[in-house]
Design a protein that fits this description.
single chain, about 325 residues, alpha+beta, Immunoglobulin-like, 14-stranded mixed β-sheet
Length: about 325
């Protein structure tokens, strides 16, 4: 084999400078190299309950994997200018449940979508319902290739523990708001139960239609359990089986974390098996395809405008 050589010092210097520049840009942009990342996320076996607090010391010794993310460039609206370049993932199982901790850099906390200018921070995990054979299309599956999606969002997290309304509403976002009259408004103001009374149909069509976005009583946590068979097929499941908890850390990560600086840290958990045919079913020792997506509300990301990964493997 002939080895090409050159005595052109300017050419050598230019090549080295280019390589250094690319490396510096990747470092400053926190862009992980996909080829350096393992494709398997191992779930550590633990005893006892899986902690929902991502700062719990139990998570410290769990091995983590940096999952590279890229912009969604497959369908409209495409979104190449993403702000979240990777998500740090840890997983554990106790033989009855599986839990995952997801962590990513986010400079701002966006936990409401009340205003027309507001978009919420979110993260989603996707699994094929049929785990045998090749996984379906990585963007929400395909016809005949159903996916089970667990989507956590910061707005639902904010709603937890809210007052009798059970949801962060317009009057919370804009405390100076004034209205003349609410249909059948009782003395002392309108509470959530009043809003779903006789005025339910004409004045609150979201709750009347059973929309989980409008009715917090349909939620079991800050995670929505969904199904999809491709673009524009995302559907809320009738039975919600996933729980979650998310915390935004403005000053840095915890011990065993993957990043420093403002960070979201979210834990999601579900039993290994459920009675829902629309859910992915887990068993100890099995390997399951898994993919991720992150939305940064400050970057006006919503729907298909997101950071997403290719398929990885979750090893239980």
């Amino acid at each position: 084999m002939r080895v090409a050589q050159t005595t052109n010092k300017k050419l050598v210097f230019a090549v080295l400078l280019s390589a250094l520049t690319v490396g510096l840009m990747l470092t400053l942009g926190r862009v992980p190299l996909a080829v350096s990342q393992p494709v398997t996320i191992p779930a550590k076996t633990v005893k006892g309950s899986i902690p929902m607090d991502g700062a719990n010391p139990v998570w410290e010794s769990v091995p983590g994997v940096v999952v590279p993310l890229s912009g969604q460039l497959i369908t409209t609206p495409m979104h190449p200018n993403i702000s979240v370049k990777s998500v740090f993932v840890k997983a554990m199982t106790n033989g009855k449940e599986v839990g995952l901790r997801l962590e990513w850099i986010d400079q701002t906390k966006n936990d409401t979508a009340i205003g027309p200018q507001d978009f919420r921070d979110q993260v989603a995990l996707m699994f094929p319902v049929n785990t045998a054979g090749a996984p379906p299309f990585q963007c929400m599956g395909q016809s005949g290739g159903t996916t089970n999606i667990w989507r956590w969002n910061a707005e639902w997290q904010k709603d937890i523990g809210k007052d009798s309304a059970g949801i962060w509403d317009v009057d919370d976002q804009y405390p100076g708001i004034f209205w003349d009259y609410y249909f059948e408004e009782p003395a002392g103001g309108v509470t959530y139960p009043d809003r779903i009374g006789r005025s339910l149909g004409p004045f609150n069509s979201g709750i009347w239609s059973g929309n989980i976005m409008s009715d917090p009583t349909l939620r079991v946590s800050s995670v929505e359990d969904l199904s999809a068979n491709g673009f524009s097929t995302l559907t809320t499941q009738a039975h919600q089986d996933v729980i979650g908890n998310g915390v935004w850390e403005p000053s840095g990560s915890v011990k065993g974390g993957g990043y420093t600086g403002p960070t979201w840290r979210v834990v999601v958990k579900r039993t290994l098996e459920t009675s829902d045919a629309n859910d992915v079913q887990f068993k100890a020792g099995m390997s399951v395809p898994i993919a991720f997506a992150v939305w940064d509300g400050a970057n006006i990301e919503r729907n298909g405008m997101k950071s997403l990964s290719t398929w990885f493997t979750l090893k239980l």
